[in-house]
Amino acid sequence: MPALPPSPETLQLIAAVQNELAEHLGAHVDVEERQLFGSHAFMVNRKLCLAVKGDELLVRLPPQQHAQTAETPGLRELDPRGGMAGYFWVSPAAYATRAQWQHWIKAALAYNPQAKATPPRARLTPSPPGRGRG
Question: CATH class for domain 27-111?
Answer without folding.
Answer: alpha beta
